Input
Amino acid sequence: MRVSLLALLPVFLVLSETTRYSDAPLLVGLWVAFVGLLMISTLKTLSPKGLRVPRKLIAVMIFAMVIVIGMVFTRPWTLLVVIDLAYLAILSRSLVQARGRFFN
Output
């Protein structure tokens, strides 16, 4: 489910007026193939259930949520691009921890 959101990254980039599809159709095809590989991989990712927010960071988390809620109403496509890039960073960290192995 989460990885399928990555497949829509080129659409989000176009709708946020960052780029156009006609600029790099081969790159979009390679991106979708890469996301397909991620969908069938056994890569373990970070679970939000295991996250604990320290007391010192509660104010920062509330401020971040205010920013996110504001972006939902003002720049939803840009917010989806940012969410996709953050998830891609988490996947990159998981890939490094798995020593570059997509499959067991």
In short: The chain has a mean pLDDT of 86.
